[in-house]
Amino acid sequence: MTKRTFVFLVLAILLIALPVYAQGGAAAPAAKNWAVPIGVGLGMGLAAGLAGLGQGRVAGSVAEALARNPGARDGIQLALFIGLAFIESLVLFTFVLLFISR
Q: Which of 20, 37, 87, 99 has its CA 20 to 30 A from that of 48?
């Protein structure tokens, strides 16, 4: 993707999303903002999918490290659990934001 195409794509997305945040008339407060659930759903799916890829990569690296040096199991296992907890916490934060934004 060239730089010009990327800039055009970003501008197109911003211009399409611009009317969502336009100020409405007197009857606008009664209407629900339809963009929030869509954005939260996309964000949760993206966070969960990328966290799954990250956890798979971590588990594969741990398996490779244990195969190379079985004597360092305790240190590798501790780093594994800490890394998986950090990755999973990002998904849980996104899940909490799902309920806050409703």
A: 20
